[in-house]
Fold these 2 entries.
Entry 1:
Amino acid sequence: MKSDSPYVSKLYGRKKSRSLNTYSQYILKNLFPKYKFEDESVIAIDDNIEFEIGFGYGEHLLWQAINNKNKMFIGAEPFISGAVNLIKEINQKQIKNIRISTDDAINILDTMADCYLSSIYILFPDPWPKRRHHKRRLINPNNVDKFHRVLKKNGKIIIASDHKGYIHSILLDFLYDNRFDWICEKSSDFTEKPFPSTQSKYEKKAIKNNQNPVYFTFKKISL
Ligand SMILES: C[S@@+](CC[C@H](N)C(=O)[O-])C[C@H]1O[C@@H](n2cnc3c(N)ncnc32)[C@H](O)[C@@H]1O
Protein backbone atom coordinates (compact mmCIF):
# COMPACT_ATOMS: atom_id res chain seq x y z
CA MET A 1 0.00 0.00 0.00
CA LYS A 2 1.26 3.47 -0.85
CA SER A 3 2.39 5.35 2.24
CA ASP A 4 0.18 8.37 1.41
CA SER A 5 -2.91 6.19 0.98
CA PRO A 6 -5.94 6.99 3.14
CA TYR A 7 -6.92 3.31 3.07
CA VAL A 8 -5.88 1.20 6.01
CA SER A 9 -4.79 -2.41 5.61
CA LYS A 10 -5.86 -3.31 9.14
CA LEU A 11 -8.60 -5.87 9.59
CA TYR A 12 -11.78 -4.53 11.21
CA GLY A 13 -14.90 -6.28 12.44
CA ARG A 14 -15.72 -9.51 14.26
CA LYS A 15 -12.89 -12.01 14.53
CA LYS A 16 -13.06 -14.45 17.40
CA SER A 17 -16.20 -15.67 19.07
CA ARG A 18 -15.95 -14.96 22.79
CA SER A 19 -15.98 -18.62 23.71
CA LEU A 20 -15.68 -21.54 21.36
CA ASN A 21 -17.31 -24.73 22.52
CA THR A 22 -15.29 -27.92 22.78
CA TYR A 23 -16.56 -29.22 19.44
CA SER A 24 -15.49 -26.01 17.64
CA GLN A 25 -12.08 -26.20 19.32
CA TYR A 26 -11.80 -29.80 18.17
CA ILE A 27 -12.65 -28.79 14.59
CA LEU A 28 -10.05 -26.02 14.56
CA LYS A 29 -7.33 -28.22 16.01
CA ASN A 30 -7.97 -31.46 14.16
CA LEU A 31 -9.88 -30.75 10.96
CA PHE A 32 -8.80 -27.24 9.95
CA PRO A 33 -5.21 -28.29 9.02
CA LYS A 34 -6.70 -30.69 6.44
CA TYR A 35 -8.49 -27.87 4.61
CA LYS A 36 -6.21 -24.92 5.34
CA PHE A 37 -5.19 -22.73 2.44
CA GLU A 38 -1.52 -22.91 1.68
CA ASP A 39 -0.47 -21.77 -1.74
CA GLU A 40 1.11 -25.04 -2.79
CA SER A 41 -1.87 -27.09 -1.62
CA VAL A 42 -4.14 -25.54 -4.23
CA ILE A 43 -4.11 -27.50 -7.42
CA ALA A 44 -5.81 -25.61 -10.20
CA ILE A 45 -8.42 -27.88 -11.72
CA ASP A 46 -8.84 -26.87 -15.35
CA ASP A 47 -6.84 -23.77 -14.44
CA ASN A 48 -9.78 -22.41 -12.43
CA ILE A 49 -9.19 -21.02 -8.96
CA GLU A 50 -11.92 -18.86 -7.40
CA PHE A 51 -11.53 -16.84 -4.20
CA GLU A 52 -14.33 -15.75 -1.86
CA ILE A 53 -13.43 -12.90 0.48
CA GLY A 54 -15.42 -12.82 3.73
CA PHE A 55 -17.50 -15.98 3.23
CA GLY A 56 -19.39 -15.57 6.54
CA TYR A 57 -20.85 -19.00 7.36
CA GLY A 58 -19.77 -20.32 3.95
CA GLU A 59 -23.16 -21.02 2.34
CA HIS A 60 -22.18 -19.62 -1.06
CA LEU A 61 -18.70 -21.20 -1.15
CA LEU A 62 -20.09 -24.61 -0.22
CA TRP A 63 -22.78 -24.41 -2.90
CA GLN A 64 -20.27 -23.36 -5.56
CA ALA A 65 -17.82 -26.14 -4.67
CA ILE A 66 -20.52 -28.83 -4.70
CA ASN A 67 -21.88 -27.62 -8.04
CA ASN A 68 -18.55 -26.92 -9.75
CA LYS A 69 -16.31 -29.87 -9.09
CA ASN A 70 -14.07 -28.79 -11.98
CA LYS A 71 -12.98 -25.70 -10.03
CA MET A 72 -10.89 -25.08 -6.92
CA PHE A 73 -12.22 -22.60 -4.36
CA ILE A 74 -10.36 -20.63 -1.69
CA GLY A 75 -12.24 -18.81 1.05
CA ALA A 76 -11.01 -16.29 3.61
CA GLU A 77 -13.00 -15.50 6.75
CA PRO A 78 -11.46 -14.22 10.00
CA PHE A 79 -14.77 -14.66 11.85
CA ILE A 80 -13.94 -17.97 13.54
CA SER A 81 -17.47 -19.30 14.11
CA GLY A 82 -18.13 -18.86 10.38
CA ALA A 83 -14.93 -20.69 9.43
CA VAL A 84 -15.71 -23.50 11.91
CA ASN A 85 -19.16 -23.91 10.35
CA LEU A 86 -17.71 -24.27 6.85
CA ILE A 87 -14.94 -26.67 7.97
CA LYS A 88 -17.61 -28.84 9.62
CA GLU A 89 -19.71 -28.87 6.42
CA ILE A 90 -16.88 -29.66 4.04
CA ASN A 91 -15.66 -32.45 6.30
CA GLN A 92 -19.13 -34.00 6.63
CA LYS A 93 -19.79 -33.72 2.89
CA GLN A 94 -16.25 -34.81 1.94
CA ILE A 95 -15.73 -31.73 -0.25
CA LYS A 96 -12.34 -31.81 -1.91
CA ASN A 97 -12.21 -28.51 -3.78
CA ILE A 98 -12.25 -25.88 -0.99
CA ARG A 99 -9.30 -24.46 0.95
CA ILE A 100 -9.90 -22.10 3.87
CA SER A 101 -7.97 -19.32 5.56
CA THR A 102 -8.88 -17.31 8.66
CA ASP A 103 -6.42 -14.55 7.67
CA ASP A 104 -7.15 -11.12 6.28
CA ALA A 105 -7.97 -11.70 2.60
CA ILE A 106 -5.92 -8.67 1.57
CA ASN A 107 -2.79 -10.21 3.07
CA ILE A 108 -3.58 -13.42 1.22
CA LEU A 109 -3.97 -11.51 -2.06
CA ASP A 110 -0.49 -10.08 -1.52
CA THR A 111 0.97 -13.61 -1.42
CA MET A 112 -0.72 -14.68 -4.66
CA ALA A 113 1.04 -14.68 -8.01
CA ASP A 114 -0.07 -12.33 -10.78
CA CYS A 115 -3.03 -13.63 -12.82
CA TYR A 116 -3.64 -16.48 -10.32
CA LEU A 117 -7.43 -16.32 -9.97
CA SER A 118 -10.25 -16.80 -12.45
CA SER A 119 -12.85 -15.15 -10.16
CA ILE A 120 -13.21 -13.26 -6.90
CA TYR A 121 -16.46 -13.07 -4.93
CA ILE A 122 -17.16 -10.43 -2.29
CA LEU A 123 -20.74 -10.84 -1.09
CA PHE A 124 -22.19 -8.25 1.24
CA PRO A 125 -18.94 -6.73 2.51
CA ASP A 126 -19.30 -4.69 5.70
CA PRO A 127 -20.50 -1.25 4.52
CA TRP A 128 -18.93 0.86 7.28
CA PRO A 129 -21.66 3.49 6.82
CA LYS A 130 -20.14 6.27 8.94
CA ARG A 131 -18.06 8.66 6.85
CA ARG A 132 -15.12 8.45 9.23
CA HIS A 133 -15.09 4.67 8.75
CA HIS A 134 -15.21 4.67 4.92
CA LYS A 135 -11.47 4.12 4.79
CA ARG A 136 -12.05 0.71 6.40
CA ARG A 137 -14.06 -0.52 3.42
CA LEU A 138 -12.68 -3.62 1.75
CA ILE A 139 -13.45 -2.25 -1.69
CA ASN A 140 -11.33 0.85 -2.20
CA PRO A 141 -8.97 2.00 -4.98
CA ASN A 142 -5.91 0.32 -3.42
CA ASN A 143 -7.63 -3.03 -3.16
CA VAL A 144 -9.17 -2.71 -6.64
CA ASP A 145 -5.56 -2.55 -7.85
CA LYS A 146 -4.77 -5.74 -5.91
CA PHE A 147 -7.84 -7.52 -7.32
CA HIS A 148 -6.67 -6.52 -10.80
CA ARG A 149 -3.18 -7.93 -10.25
CA VAL A 150 -4.29 -11.39 -9.09
CA LEU A 151 -7.07 -11.88 -11.65
CA LYS A 152 -6.38 -13.51 -14.99
CA LYS A 153 -7.24 -11.52 -18.10
CA ASN A 154 -11.04 -11.80 -18.55
CA GLY A 155 -11.25 -12.92 -14.92
CA LYS A 156 -14.26 -11.60 -13.00
CA ILE A 157 -14.92 -10.02 -9.66
CA ILE A 158 -18.49 -10.42 -8.43
CA ILE A 159 -19.73 -8.17 -5.66
CA ALA A 160 -23.07 -7.94 -3.85
CA SER A 161 -24.22 -5.14 -1.58
CA ASP A 162 -27.44 -3.72 -0.20
CA HIS A 163 -25.94 -0.46 1.06
CA LYS A 164 -26.65 2.52 -1.23
CA GLY A 165 -23.60 4.56 -0.30
CA TYR A 166 -21.26 1.60 -0.65
CA ILE A 167 -22.86 0.60 -3.98
CA HIS A 168 -22.04 4.07 -5.37
CA SER A 169 -18.47 3.99 -4.15
CA ILE A 170 -17.89 0.42 -5.48
CA LEU A 171 -19.12 1.45 -8.91
CA LEU A 172 -17.01 4.62 -8.94
CA ASP A 173 -13.86 2.77 -7.87
CA PHE A 174 -14.18 0.20 -10.67
CA LEU A 175 -15.20 2.69 -13.37
CA TYR A 176 -12.34 4.98 -12.40
CA ASP A 177 -9.93 2.04 -12.72
CA ASN A 178 -10.46 1.64 -16.46
CA ARG A 179 -8.82 -1.81 -16.61
CA PHE A 180 -12.21 -3.41 -15.80
CA ASP A 181 -15.43 -3.66 -17.82
CA TRP A 182 -18.70 -3.44 -15.93
CA ILE A 183 -20.76 -6.36 -17.32
CA CYS A 184 -24.17 -4.73 -17.43
CA GLU A 185 -26.36 -4.58 -20.51
CA LYS A 186 -29.75 -4.51 -18.82
CA SER A 187 -31.03 -3.63 -15.37
CA SER A 188 -31.51 -7.28 -14.41
CA ASP A 189 -27.73 -7.70 -14.77
CA PHE A 190 -27.36 -5.88 -11.49
CA THR A 191 -30.70 -6.52 -9.78
CA GLU A 192 -30.46 -10.29 -10.17
CA LYS A 193 -27.72 -12.55 -8.90
CA PRO A 194 -25.33 -13.32 -11.80
CA PHE A 195 -24.74 -16.90 -10.63
CA PRO A 196 -27.05 -19.62 -9.33
CA SER A 197 -26.43 -20.31 -5.65
CA THR A 198 -28.06 -20.64 -2.31
CA GLN A 199 -28.68 -17.42 -0.33
CA SER A 200 -26.08 -16.37 2.22
CA LYS A 201 -27.10 -15.18 5.69
CA TYR A 202 -26.69 -11.51 4.76
CA GLU A 203 -28.41 -11.94 1.43
CA LYS A 204 -31.46 -13.48 3.15
CA LYS A 205 -31.47 -10.62 5.65
CA ALA A 206 -31.26 -7.97 2.91
CA ILE A 207 -34.09 -9.53 0.90
CA LYS A 208 -36.26 -9.98 4.00
CA ASN A 209 -35.79 -6.27 4.84
CA ASN A 210 -36.59 -5.18 1.24
CA GLN A 211 -33.09 -3.76 0.92
CA ASN A 212 -32.85 -4.70 -2.79
CA PRO A 213 -29.34 -6.11 -3.11
CA VAL A 214 -27.29 -5.11 -6.14
CA TYR A 215 -24.88 -7.49 -7.88
CA PHE A 216 -21.89 -6.22 -9.84
CA THR A 217 -19.75 -8.20 -12.26
CA PHE A 218 -16.52 -6.50 -13.34
CA LYS A 219 -14.28 -8.17 -15.92
CA LYS A 220 -10.55 -7.55 -16.11
CA ILE A 221 -9.98 -6.40 -19.67
CA SER A 222 -6.33 -5.39 -19.70
CA LEU A 223 -3.18 -6.61 -18.02
C1 LIG B 1 -21.44 -8.62 6.30
S1 LIG B 1 -20.52 -10.09 6.40
C2 LIG B 1 -21.05 -11.01 4.97
C3 LIG B 1 -20.76 -12.47 5.09
C4 LIG B 1 -21.17 -13.34 3.88
N1 LIG B 1 -20.46 -12.97 2.68
C5 LIG B 1 -22.66 -13.30 3.65
O1 LIG B 1 -23.08 -12.83 2.56
O2 LIG B 1 -23.42 -13.75 4.53
C6 LIG B 1 -18.91 -9.55 5.89
C7 LIG B 1 -17.83 -10.57 6.20
O3 LIG B 1 -16.58 -10.13 5.67
C8 LIG B 1 -15.56 -10.55 6.55
N2 LIG B 1 -14.37 -9.71 6.31
C9 LIG B 1 -14.22 -8.39 6.56
N3 LIG B 1 -12.99 -7.97 6.23
C10 LIG B 1 -12.34 -9.07 5.74
C11 LIG B 1 -11.03 -9.30 5.24
N4 LIG B 1 -10.14 -8.30 5.16
N5 LIG B 1 -10.70 -10.54 4.85
C12 LIG B 1 -11.60 -11.56 4.90
N6 LIG B 1 -12.86 -11.41 5.37
C13 LIG B 1 -13.22 -10.18 5.78
C14 LIG B 1 -16.17 -10.35 7.93
O4 LIG B 1 -15.53 -11.14 8.92
C15 LIG B 1 -17.61 -10.74 7.71
O5 LIG B 1 -17.86 -12.10 8.04
Entry 2:
Amino acid sequence: METLNNCPVCKETNFKPYLGCKDYTVSRETFTIVQCNSCEFKFTNPRPEPKDLGKYYESADYVSHSKSTKGFINSLYHIAKHYSLLKKIQLINSLSKKGKILDYGCGTGDFLNNCKVAGWEVSGIEPNDLARNIAKELLKSEINSELSENSFEKNSFSIITLWHVLEHISELDTTVETLLTFLKPGGVLLIAVPNCNSYDAQVYGKYWAAYDVPRHLYHFVPKTTEKYFKNNGLSHEKTLPMPLDSFYVSMLSEKYIARESGKSGGLGMIRAAWRGFVSNIKAISKQGTSSSQVYIFKKGAF
Ligand SMILES: [Zn+2]
Protein backbone atom coordinates (compact mmCIF):
# COMPACT_ATOMS: atom_id res chain seq x y z
CA MET A 1 0.00 0.00 0.00
CA GLU A 2 1.04 3.57 -0.66
CA THR A 3 0.34 6.37 1.84
CA LEU A 4 0.10 9.95 0.61
CA ASN A 5 1.63 12.46 3.02
CA ASN A 6 0.57 15.53 1.04
CA CYS A 7 -2.90 16.50 -0.11
CA PRO A 8 -3.01 16.04 -3.91
CA VAL A 9 -4.74 19.42 -4.30
CA CYS A 10 -3.19 21.88 -1.79
CA LYS A 11 -0.11 19.82 -0.72
CA GLU A 12 -0.85 20.35 3.02
CA THR A 13 -0.10 17.46 5.37
CA ASN A 14 -2.99 17.23 7.86
CA PHE A 15 -5.95 14.96 7.11
CA LYS A 16 -8.78 13.41 9.08
CA PRO A 17 -10.63 10.15 8.41
CA TYR A 18 -13.81 10.84 6.45
CA LEU A 19 -15.34 7.45 5.61
CA GLY A 20 -14.48 3.74 5.63
CA CYS A 21 -15.65 2.16 2.36
CA LYS A 22 -15.65 -1.37 1.05
CA ASP A 23 -14.64 -2.47 -2.42
CA TYR A 24 -17.97 -4.16 -3.25
CA THR A 25 -17.09 -5.29 -6.76
CA VAL A 26 -13.68 -6.96 -6.67
CA SER A 27 -11.60 -7.40 -3.52
CA ARG A 28 -14.15 -6.81 -0.72
CA GLU A 29 -11.32 -5.03 1.15
CA THR A 30 -12.09 -1.89 3.16
CA PHE A 31 -10.35 1.41 2.40
CA THR A 32 -10.27 4.72 4.21
CA ILE A 33 -11.19 8.00 2.55
CA VAL A 34 -9.51 10.94 4.29
CA GLN A 35 -10.33 14.65 4.11
CA CYS A 36 -7.69 17.38 3.96
CA ASN A 37 -7.97 19.75 6.96
CA SER A 38 -6.96 22.65 4.79
CA CYS A 39 -8.86 22.42 1.46
CA GLU A 40 -11.36 19.62 2.35
CA PHE A 41 -10.25 17.48 -0.59
CA LYS A 42 -11.18 13.81 -0.08
CA PHE A 43 -8.97 10.96 -1.25
CA THR A 44 -8.43 7.25 -0.70
CA ASN A 45 -5.49 6.94 1.68
CA PRO A 46 -3.63 4.63 1.95
CA ARG A 47 -4.19 3.23 -1.54
CA PRO A 48 -2.76 0.29 -3.52
CA GLU A 49 0.65 0.80 -5.12
CA PRO A 50 0.27 1.70 -8.84
CA LYS A 51 1.69 -1.73 -9.82
CA ASP A 52 -1.05 -3.47 -7.77
CA LEU A 53 -4.01 -1.42 -9.03
CA GLY A 54 -4.59 -3.60 -12.11
CA LYS A 55 -5.96 -6.50 -10.08
CA TYR A 56 -8.71 -4.26 -8.65
CA TYR A 57 -10.13 -3.88 -12.16
CA GLU A 58 -10.52 -7.62 -12.75
CA SER A 59 -14.28 -8.10 -12.48
CA ALA A 60 -17.19 -8.76 -14.82
CA ASP A 61 -19.04 -6.10 -12.78
CA TYR A 62 -16.70 -3.46 -14.03
CA VAL A 63 -18.85 -2.59 -17.01
CA SER A 64 -17.09 0.53 -18.26
CA HIS A 65 -14.67 -1.66 -20.17
CA SER A 66 -17.05 -4.35 -21.32
CA LYS A 67 -19.61 -4.62 -24.09
CA SER A 68 -21.69 -7.21 -22.24
CA THR A 69 -25.43 -6.48 -22.20
CA LYS A 70 -26.30 -9.22 -19.69
CA GLY A 71 -28.44 -8.22 -16.74
CA PHE A 72 -30.93 -5.44 -16.06
CA ILE A 73 -28.47 -2.82 -14.83
CA ASN A 74 -26.09 -3.53 -17.69
CA SER A 75 -28.91 -3.14 -20.25
CA LEU A 76 -29.97 0.19 -18.78
CA TYR A 77 -26.34 1.22 -18.68
CA HIS A 78 -25.97 0.61 -22.41
CA ILE A 79 -29.20 2.45 -23.35
CA ALA A 80 -28.15 5.39 -21.19
CA LYS A 81 -24.68 5.25 -22.69
CA HIS A 82 -26.07 5.67 -26.20
CA TYR A 83 -28.09 8.72 -25.15
CA SER A 84 -25.19 10.25 -23.24
CA LEU A 85 -22.87 9.75 -26.23
CA LEU A 86 -25.18 11.95 -28.31
CA LYS A 87 -25.18 14.60 -25.58
CA LYS A 88 -21.38 14.44 -25.33
CA ILE A 89 -20.93 15.04 -29.06
CA GLN A 90 -23.36 17.99 -28.93
CA LEU A 91 -21.31 19.41 -26.06
CA ILE A 92 -17.96 18.95 -27.82
CA ASN A 93 -19.28 20.59 -30.98
CA SER A 94 -20.52 23.56 -28.92
CA LEU A 95 -17.16 24.11 -27.20
CA SER A 96 -14.76 24.46 -30.10
CA LYS A 97 -14.32 24.55 -33.85
CA LYS A 98 -13.61 21.06 -35.18
CA GLY A 99 -9.96 20.08 -34.91
CA LYS A 100 -7.96 17.53 -32.96
CA ILE A 101 -9.42 15.86 -29.88
CA LEU A 102 -7.65 13.61 -27.37
CA ASP A 103 -9.65 11.31 -25.09
CA TYR A 104 -7.46 10.22 -22.19
CA GLY A 105 -8.76 6.88 -20.90
CA CYS A 106 -10.82 6.28 -24.04
CA GLY A 107 -12.03 2.79 -23.02
CA THR A 108 -13.49 0.90 -25.97
CA GLY A 109 -13.42 4.06 -28.13
CA ASP A 110 -17.18 4.70 -28.51
CA PHE A 111 -16.92 8.39 -27.70
CA LEU A 112 -13.97 8.89 -30.08
CA ASN A 113 -15.74 6.98 -32.82
CA ASN A 114 -18.73 9.34 -32.53
CA CYS A 115 -16.33 12.32 -32.60
CA LYS A 116 -14.70 10.91 -35.74
CA VAL A 117 -18.09 10.54 -37.45
CA ALA A 118 -18.82 14.16 -36.45
CA GLY A 119 -15.65 15.31 -38.22
CA TRP A 120 -13.06 15.46 -35.45
CA GLU A 121 -9.50 14.18 -35.83
CA VAL A 122 -9.27 11.73 -32.94
CA SER A 123 -6.54 10.36 -30.65
CA GLY A 124 -6.88 8.20 -27.57
CA ILE A 125 -4.94 6.65 -24.73
CA GLU A 126 -6.15 3.56 -22.89
CA PRO A 127 -4.13 1.42 -20.45
CA ASN A 128 -6.52 -1.57 -20.38
CA ASP A 129 -5.42 -4.08 -23.06
CA LEU A 130 -8.88 -5.51 -23.73
CA ALA A 131 -10.54 -2.10 -24.09
CA ARG A 132 -7.66 -0.68 -26.13
CA ASN A 133 -7.80 -3.50 -28.67
CA ILE A 134 -11.55 -2.95 -29.15
CA ALA A 135 -10.89 0.79 -29.60
CA LYS A 136 -8.12 0.16 -32.15
CA GLU A 137 -10.43 -2.07 -34.17
CA LEU A 138 -13.29 0.42 -34.03
CA LEU A 139 -11.24 3.51 -34.87
CA LYS A 140 -8.85 1.80 -37.28
CA SER A 141 -6.01 3.72 -35.68
CA GLU A 142 -3.24 3.26 -33.15
CA ILE A 143 -4.18 3.88 -29.51
CA ASN A 144 -1.32 4.25 -27.03
CA SER A 145 -1.38 2.43 -23.71
CA GLU A 146 0.28 5.25 -21.81
CA LEU A 147 1.09 8.91 -21.94
CA SER A 148 4.62 10.22 -22.35
CA GLU A 149 5.96 13.69 -23.08
CA ASN A 150 6.52 12.61 -26.69
CA SER A 151 3.10 11.05 -27.25
CA PHE A 152 1.81 13.93 -29.38
CA GLU A 153 2.80 17.26 -30.89
CA LYS A 154 2.85 20.07 -28.28
CA ASN A 155 -0.03 22.59 -28.32
CA SER A 156 -1.90 20.54 -30.92
CA PHE A 157 -5.29 19.58 -29.44
CA SER A 158 -8.37 21.81 -29.41
CA ILE A 159 -10.01 19.61 -26.77
CA ILE A 160 -8.75 17.04 -24.27
CA THR A 161 -11.38 14.98 -22.47
CA LEU A 162 -11.26 12.81 -19.35
CA TRP A 163 -14.65 11.13 -18.91
CA HIS A 164 -14.67 9.57 -15.42
CA VAL A 165 -10.92 9.02 -15.63
CA LEU A 166 -9.25 11.67 -13.46
CA GLU A 167 -10.30 9.90 -10.24
CA HIS A 168 -8.36 6.77 -11.34
CA ILE A 169 -4.96 8.38 -12.02
CA SER A 170 -2.14 7.54 -9.57
CA GLU A 171 0.35 10.03 -11.01
CA LEU A 172 -2.10 12.92 -10.99
CA ASP A 173 0.21 15.96 -11.29
CA THR A 174 2.56 14.45 -13.87
CA THR A 175 -0.34 13.24 -16.01
CA VAL A 176 -2.23 16.54 -15.93
CA GLU A 177 0.92 18.59 -16.57
CA THR A 178 1.86 16.37 -19.54
CA LEU A 179 -1.67 16.48 -20.98
CA LEU A 180 -1.71 20.27 -20.75
CA THR A 181 1.46 20.53 -22.88
CA PHE A 182 -0.53 18.92 -25.73
CA LEU A 183 -3.45 21.34 -25.39
CA LYS A 184 -3.50 24.41 -27.65
CA PRO A 185 -3.48 27.83 -25.99
CA GLY A 186 -7.19 28.66 -25.75
CA GLY A 187 -8.00 24.92 -25.88
CA VAL A 188 -10.56 23.18 -23.69
CA LEU A 189 -9.95 20.60 -20.98
CA LEU A 190 -13.13 18.68 -20.17
CA ILE A 191 -13.25 16.78 -16.87
CA ALA A 192 -16.17 14.53 -15.87
CA VAL A 193 -16.05 13.22 -12.30
CA PRO A 194 -18.48 11.99 -9.64
CA ASN A 195 -19.51 14.54 -7.04
CA CYS A 196 -19.60 13.44 -3.40
CA ASN A 197 -21.57 16.60 -2.53
CA SER A 198 -24.57 15.10 -4.35
CA TYR A 199 -27.82 14.01 -2.70
CA ASP A 200 -27.23 10.37 -3.72
CA ALA A 201 -23.74 10.46 -2.13
CA GLN A 202 -25.24 11.83 1.09
CA VAL A 203 -28.08 9.28 1.34
CA TYR A 204 -26.05 6.21 0.36
CA GLY A 205 -22.99 7.10 2.48
CA LYS A 206 -20.47 4.27 2.52
CA TYR A 207 -22.60 2.35 -0.02
CA TRP A 208 -22.46 5.14 -2.61
CA ALA A 209 -21.23 3.32 -5.70
CA ALA A 210 -19.22 6.26 -7.03
CA TYR A 211 -16.78 6.07 -4.10
CA ASP A 212 -15.71 2.89 -5.89
CA VAL A 213 -12.60 2.36 -3.72
CA PRO A 214 -9.80 1.68 -4.38
CA ARG A 215 -10.25 2.32 -8.13
CA HIS A 216 -11.35 5.88 -7.31
CA LEU A 217 -8.33 7.45 -5.67
CA TYR A 218 -9.89 10.94 -5.42
CA HIS A 219 -13.41 12.07 -4.49
CA PHE A 220 -14.02 15.46 -6.04
CA VAL A 221 -16.53 18.22 -5.28
CA PRO A 222 -16.82 21.50 -7.24
CA LYS A 223 -14.58 23.49 -4.89
CA THR A 224 -11.66 21.04 -4.98
CA THR A 225 -11.94 20.32 -8.71
CA GLU A 226 -11.87 24.01 -9.57
CA LYS A 227 -9.01 24.66 -7.15
CA TYR A 228 -6.89 21.84 -8.56
CA PHE A 229 -7.14 23.05 -12.15
CA LYS A 230 -6.76 26.74 -11.28
CA ASN A 231 -3.52 25.69 -9.53
CA ASN A 232 -2.54 24.20 -12.90
CA GLY A 233 -3.06 27.53 -14.63
CA LEU A 234 -6.47 26.91 -16.20
CA SER A 235 -9.55 29.08 -16.03
CA HIS A 236 -12.89 27.54 -15.06
CA GLU A 237 -15.49 28.26 -17.72
CA LYS A 238 -18.56 26.34 -16.59
CA THR A 239 -19.88 23.19 -14.92
CA LEU A 240 -22.70 21.04 -16.28
CA PRO A 241 -24.74 18.30 -14.57
CA MET A 242 -24.79 14.67 -15.80
CA PRO A 243 -28.40 13.76 -14.95
CA LEU A 244 -28.27 10.06 -15.87
CA ASP A 245 -25.46 9.24 -13.48
CA SER A 246 -27.60 9.61 -10.34
CA PHE A 247 -29.88 6.77 -11.55
CA TYR A 248 -27.05 4.46 -12.47
CA VAL A 249 -25.06 5.15 -9.30
CA SER A 250 -28.18 4.76 -7.12
CA MET A 251 -28.99 1.39 -8.73
CA LEU A 252 -25.47 0.12 -8.14
CA SER A 253 -25.55 1.41 -4.56
CA GLU A 254 -28.83 -0.45 -3.93
CA LYS A 255 -27.27 -3.59 -5.41
CA TYR A 256 -24.39 -3.35 -2.93
CA ILE A 257 -26.77 -2.80 0.01
CA ALA A 258 -28.86 -5.82 -1.05
CA ARG A 259 -25.79 -7.99 -1.47
CA GLU A 260 -24.32 -6.96 1.91
CA SER A 261 -27.62 -7.59 3.74
CA GLY A 262 -28.33 -10.84 1.86
CA LYS A 263 -31.78 -9.59 0.74
CA SER A 264 -33.12 -9.39 -2.81
CA GLY A 265 -32.84 -6.02 -4.50
CA GLY A 266 -36.40 -5.71 -5.99
CA LEU A 267 -37.68 -2.76 -3.95
CA GLY A 268 -34.21 -1.31 -3.98
CA MET A 269 -34.46 -0.65 -7.72
CA ILE A 270 -37.64 1.41 -7.20
CA ARG A 271 -35.93 3.29 -4.38
CA ALA A 272 -32.90 3.84 -6.65
CA ALA A 273 -35.09 5.32 -9.40
CA TRP A 274 -36.75 7.62 -6.84
CA ARG A 275 -33.47 8.73 -5.29
CA GLY A 276 -31.91 9.26 -8.70
CA PHE A 277 -34.89 11.48 -9.55
CA VAL A 278 -34.71 13.40 -6.24
CA SER A 279 -30.97 13.89 -6.73
CA ASN A 280 -31.60 15.59 -10.09
CA ILE A 281 -34.42 17.77 -8.71
CA LYS A 282 -32.19 18.90 -5.84
CA ALA A 283 -29.34 19.59 -8.28
CA ILE A 284 -31.62 21.97 -10.22
CA SER A 285 -32.35 24.05 -7.13
CA LYS A 286 -28.82 23.87 -5.72
CA GLN A 287 -26.10 24.15 -8.35
CA GLY A 288 -23.00 21.99 -7.99
CA THR A 289 -24.83 19.04 -6.40
CA SER A 290 -25.40 16.77 -9.41
CA SER A 291 -24.30 13.13 -8.94
CA SER A 292 -21.58 13.59 -11.57
CA GLN A 293 -20.51 16.80 -13.24
CA VAL A 294 -18.66 17.97 -16.32
CA TYR A 295 -16.19 20.77 -15.71
CA ILE A 296 -15.02 22.89 -18.63
CA PHE A 297 -11.61 24.53 -18.22
CA LYS A 298 -9.66 26.67 -20.66
CA LYS A 299 -5.93 26.99 -21.19
CA GLY A 300 -4.84 30.64 -21.23
CA ALA A 301 -3.95 32.10 -24.61
CA PHE A 302 -0.64 33.51 -23.37
ZN1 LIG B 1 -5.80 19.96 0.66
